[in-house]
From TrEMBL:
Cross-referenced SUPFAM superfamilies: HybD-like
Encoding gene, per UniProt annotation: yyaC
InterPro entries registered for this protein in UniProt: Pept_HybD-like_dom_sf, YyaC
Taxonomy, superkingdom: Bacteria
Keywords per UniProt: Hydrolase, Protease
Gene Ontology biological-process entries: proteolysis
Any single Pfam family the record assigns to this protein: DUF1256
Protein name (record): Spore protease YyaC
Gene Ontology MF term list: peptidase activity
Amino acid sequence: MINKLILDSSSQDSVFQLRDTLSKEIYPIVKSGRPIIILCIGTDRSTGDSLGPLVGDKLNFLIRDRVFLYGSLKNPVHAKNLTNTINEVNNKFKNPFIIAVDACLGSIQNVGKIIVEGKPLKPGSAMNKDLPEIGDLSITGIVNISGAMEFMVLQNTRLFTVMQIVDVIYKGLYHSILKTIGGKKYNNDFNDNLIQNANA
């Protein structure tokens, strides 16, 4: 399980780094038969907090056997329905592997960075909200600087910064799923090269 990986969303190879990292994490999960849940947290009512729903929106077409998505612009997962969504996932799926995606605030030099960790994320921490931790693996995008007036900071975050991070996260997730699971039809007969690449 990955400890911690920090990527720069403005770097040209960030998508490939994220793809390869996620592939190594996802491959044994696929082999074990566990369902993969991509949980994109946030709201479209705030620019800075829209990262999760935007990623979810771009990944809508990715849904296939053993891969399920929660959170999009149309049906966001946010503070008011997060607990119910987690309960729904746990009731509907047996031992799901949850990849949680969310925005966060950080230091000025880290704005635009993406953090991938093999542990749950704590949604709403920037807003001092007491929400349950979620995820076997977390992907967070640092969209703006932390400090005072977090609500205003999120509201006044540049959409360009958010979209740059969104593009890396969704492409990394998409290509890691293609690399480990393949196309729409789930196939148990993995290509040897695919397996080797996933384990490389």
